[in-house]
Amino acid sequence: MMKEYELFIGPNHPGATGNMSYRLWAEGDKVKRAETRVGYLHRGFEKLMEKRLWMQNVPLVCRICVPEPDINEAAYSMAVEDLMGWEIPERAKYIRTIILELARISSHLMTVGSIAASLGIYTAAQWGIGDRDYILDIFEEITGGRVYHIYIWPGGVRWDLPKNARELITKVLDYLEKRKPMYDDLILNNKVFIRRAAGVGVVPKDKAIEWGVTGPNLRAAGYKLDFRKLEPYAAYDKIDFEIPHYPKLGEYEVVSDGSDIYTRTAIRMLEIVQSIRIIRQALKDMPEGDVLLKQPQWFAWKVPAGYSYVRVESSKGEFGYFVVSDGGKKPVRVHVRGASYTHGINVMETIAPGLNIADFAPTAFSLDVCPPEIER
After folding, report:
1. What are the residue ranges of helices labelled H in 15-89?
2. Alpha-carbon gap, residue 291 to 371, rounded angstroms
3. Residue 35 carries which DSSP code?
4. pLDDT tens for residues 272-326?
5. Which uninterrupted H or E stretch holds 319?
6. CATH number at residue 314
7. Which of 123, 189, 114 is nearest to 362 (CA)?
8. Which of 203, 174, 240 is nearest to 317 (CA)?
9. What is the pLDDT of residues 94-125, one digit of tens each?
10. Rounded distance between C-alpha atoms, residue 212 and residue 219, angstroms
């Protein structure tokens, strides 16, 4: 009988989904048990937010998920707006939608490339990071920052879009649409990828909701759930778009029963297409007007006592903020519900036993975990 041994993956960035690690116990090339290990990142965001003024938290929350910081700005701002009883300007709603969908595309490009690279298709990761950089150029032009934008904040957005924003965004969207067939041929239509990804890393469909799976991972299991449709925010209630879900995989061949690495990758590629569709509509229909409510001096804010829970649809799944105020200048309690805590710990540790060691990394990447969400 082969002796069980330990294997460590991470915490270096190429080793796992960011600065976290997995401790595996294996026999031969089969994983017997897995344990998620965190604690390597900046952390304690929730407690730090209780020590800062309401507006001072905006630059802090975007650190909770680096590849998609804007979703934190939006959720936190929406919770504050709910407590304040504010309705933000219509133009600000459309701008938020554009920013959030650009962030979604950026995140998905990184994830899809990482999944493919973990199966030896390194060109996909290089393409994904390279094409993502064009979106970061847009963020830099609009917000002044490439990674942390601090652009969405309570009351609307920091300032209006620059005059050349429509041209810049449209140019990148046109480029990405032309690139998509190349991604399809390299990844999803690639026989090597299909053989390595189909039927691997399966999340049981009858357990998905019980385990707290959300977002693209849940839609890959066949559940048509998306908070942009279920509980519309920003300008999503005014925009026509579809929710990709298994088995409706569009141009991609249904090669498995879903809820596996292949289907999770296909869903994300289809979501990029829908994000482009959403952004084009938002650019076309966006009204003129103010982008930020007239407010009192920011550092003198007193938010009415009460609590609010706001949830949005991030690229990784349900992303929620529970914010409590006692009527003062700082929040009393903030709790962040990130999808990565569920996917990166509970789901990954549960489905890991029985995986081949070579299939562990692509399975982890396909669940799309953002470690700071866990260490918040």
Report:
1. 45-49, 58-61, 70-84
2. 32
3. E
4. 999 999 999 999 999 999 999 988 787 788 999 999 999 999 999 999 999 999 9
5. strand 317-325
6. 1.10.645.10
7. 114
8. 203
9. 999 999 999 999 999 999 999 999 999 999 99
10. 13
pLDDT of residue 264: 96
Whether the CA torsion 12, 13, 17, 20 is positive or negative: it is positive
H or E segment to which residue 134 belongs:
helix 122-143
Q: What is the CA radius of gyration of the chain?
A: 21
Asked if residue 150 belongs to a domain, the reply is yes
Report pLDDT digits (tens) over 189-208.
999 999 999 999 999 999 99
376 domain residue, yes or no? no
DSSP 4: P
> CB under 8 Å to 326, separation ≥6 — which residues?
305, 332
Other CB atoms closer than 10 Å to residue 162's CB: what's the count? 11
Residue 71 in any domain: the answer is: yes
Please count the structural domains in the chain. Answer: 1
Beta bridge partners of 309: 322
Element at 311 (helix H, strand E) = strand 306-314
Mean pLDDT confidence for 28-54: 88
Q: Report residue 19's pLDDT band, with 50, 70 and 90 as the boundaries.
A: confident
- Tokens, residue 91: 């133009």
Strand partners, 323: 308, 334
39: left (phi over 0), alpha (psi -120 to 50) or beta: left
CA gap 18, 88 in Å, rounded? 35
78 in a structural domain: yes
Tell me: the pLDDT tens digits for 42-88?
778 889 999 999 999 999 998 888 889 999 999 999 999 999 999 99
Q: Which residue reads 């879900």 in tokens?
A: 245
Residues 6+ away with beta carbon under 8 Å from 320:
75, 309, 310, 311, 312, 336, 337
Q: Is the pLDDT of residue 162 over 60?
A: yes
> How would you class 180 by CB atoms within 10 Å of its CB: exposed for 0-12, middle for 13-18, buried for 19 or more?
middle
Token pair 């600000």 is at which residue? 92
Give residue 86's domain range.
Answer: 5-370
Take residue 355 and report the two structure tokens written for it: 């995986």
171 within 8 A of 135, measured Cβ to Cβ: no
